Amino acid sequence: MAAPAETASGTPAAPSAEDLKVYELTQKYTAEAAKRFRPEGLDQFVRLRESGSARFRALAEDPWVDHAALNTKPLVPDGAQHKFIILGAGYGGLIYAVRLIEAGLASGPDDIRFVDAAGGFGGTWWWNRYPGLHCDIESYSYMPLLEETGYVPSKKYATGAELLEYAELLAKKWELHDKALFRATVKATRWDEKAQLWDVEVTEGRGPGEASRELTLKGQYVLVVSGILTTPHVPKIPELENFAGPIFHTARWDYNVSGGTPKDATLTGLEGKRVGILGTGATAIQAVPRLAKYAKELYVFQRTPSVVSWRGQRETDPEEWKTKIVRGKGWQRERRLNQDLYLMDSVEEGQENMVGDGWTEFRSFSAVVGSSKYPIVEPTPEKIMEHVGRLYKLDAPQSEKMRARVESIVNDPETAAKLKAWYPVWCKRPTFSDEYLQTFNQPNVHLVDTDGKGVDAATTSGLVVAGKEYPLDILILSTGYVTPSIGGGSPAVRTGIDIYGRGGRSLDEKWNTQGASTLHGVATHGFPNLFFAPLSQSSQSSNNAFTLDIGGEHIVHIIEKAEAKVGGNAIAEVTSEAEEAWALEIMKRAGWFATVMGCTPGYITSEGEALRQSSDPMEMAKKARGGNWSQGIHTFLALLEEYRADGQIKGIDVVSRTA
């Protein structure tokens, strides 16, 4: 909280009514967060594919893949060499490939090779096909490369099915289908000093009854674009695997159980059934209204409620598209930046709100995406307290409005009280729906609030909360993914790939020893020709497609200039001096993110692990290094553009492989 002002005599002024109200609110937030802290942190979850239960490991399998069709395609040879190996074939991987092609860096038939565990393009939109699925950022800003394709989204918020089809459209337009190795898990990536290439060790699945293949691909460049929410996990609830009814994760929806299809949410398989859904995050917000329509009884198990703002879904108006949205060259970036200016609390008076959605009302979200409106926060207790207090004051009216919205929609006061979120909006990704809260007015829908404690245990016939068993026929796990900030944001940890650079040094070991170490969040010393999607030491947006596009643009520029310097066949490597200088810039700005210290546990705080205080100066420094640019994505973009302007790619050593 901000320190009290002083009177003319130098004595502290009495706190204002606003100060007192915000203080009381923070006390409530602290009490609610304390209920949810668990000493085991991230260890309270297990990744489905690493579970000791064969049943849970099976839940991680790809339910959408067409093994027969993929097995008719020519085998990718063991030892095949490619100029670019892109790990990930979602929107990020597609953006990077298109940027490489458009820059003239990947013109040969074998220059690009995607490697992805899924059975096709799409990333999160391949895996997630649950009923009610839409993007939570408006389509016109979220869907990448709309200018290049001329595609017109059907709705302001595209459905998951449309987003998956659009990934296919991108792959078709840039002729990428024959460049993908699907059903492939990357085990390790190793720099071969002698060949001056990367060895990418891959296990390719071939489907039931077929032996998997082990192969090593060789790449001049490796681009790690494996997404940030790709590894589903489940809480370690005692006896959960022994539940007798059907059970599945929302990231691997089972329409054989529910009925319907990804394009037809007629969930006749739920009729007459008692259905439980565990979790109330962004996925459940979308799925619950569809489940409620068909289930005989729906039980929604909640540990922490979500902030639920309005959505305002509508069809795309052709006239609006032509006259108000597409405004000439660069319209999509302009629109993306405009939305982020509102999120960063950096708009100028009278500035147009191009997007006009619920996101743009959450200006206190600047706590996690930064702002150019305010100076760098000095790392003193007084300045940090002042900064945190200002953001709490900025957040309080909107958070109160969101809690009042619950009361205005949900008829039962007791249920409404349990659906109110008691934390600042930046602590968990806010959600948007004009249906979710209304669902709790239906007589067949029951909120089972665990008061922050979570589910006690499972039985063969249901879940137990506070000693009471709730009988279920079907259980749906809407329990999220491994946090992207795991391992301090290490690209290796968050993707589950062992990465070894010069001298066999592990990228994980470097992150554990030094903390995050990059230039602009996309490359690191000792790992030549390795680039990764920005996370730590970059700038972030609520719109991940925008972040990926900025990262891809920057990486392609670096590669393009490196190749030009030596006439092709380049080895580009960040210098240790450059990454340390960049780390200092990030550390200077670390005080901005002190606001997360009051957050409830969740993926933003690595289930509370990021909030643990250490008196070790080295650990404190590593935590500060793992932060992001705190002055907003538009100033970060301007910084990158200034860096690129002279074409020198300062801070990157470039030599030729043939030198």
Describe this structure in words.
With 659 residues, the protein is α/β, with parallel strands linked by helices. It has a domain at 76-230 and 488-575 and 629-656: FAD/NAD(P)-binding domain (3-Layer(bba) Sandwich), CATH 3.50.50. Helices cover 34% and strands 15% of the residues. Strands 2, 3, 4, 5, 6, 7, 19 and 20 form an eight-stranded mixed beta sheet that branches. Strands 9-18-10-11-14 form a five-stranded parallel beta sheet, covered by helices on one side. Strands 15-16-17 form a three-stranded antiparallel beta sheet, with no helix packed on it. The longest helix has 29 residues, at 381-409. The radius of gyration is 25 Å and the shape is globular.
What gap, in angstroms, lies between the N and C termini? 59 Å
What is the highest CATH level, the class of the domain at 76-230 and 488-575 and 629-656? Alpha Beta
SSE-based structural type = alpha/beta
What is the level-2 CATH architecture name of the domain at 76-230 and 488-575 and 629-656? 3-Layer(bba) Sandwich
Mean pLDDT: 94
- Report low-confidence residues grouped into runs of 5 or more: none
Helical residue percent?
25-40%
Oligomer: single chain
- Radius of gyration from the alpha-carbon trace, in angstroms: 25 Å
Overall geometric form? globular
Question: Major sheet: size, sense and barrel closure?
Answer: 8 strands, mixed
Task: Report the CATH superfamily of the domain at 76-230 and 488-575 and 629-656.
Answer: FAD/NAD(P)-binding domain
Q: Helical segment tally? A: 22
Number of strands: 22
The proportion of strand residues reads 15-25%
* Fold-level CATH name of the domain at 76-230 and 488-575 and 629-656: FAD/NAD(P)-binding domain
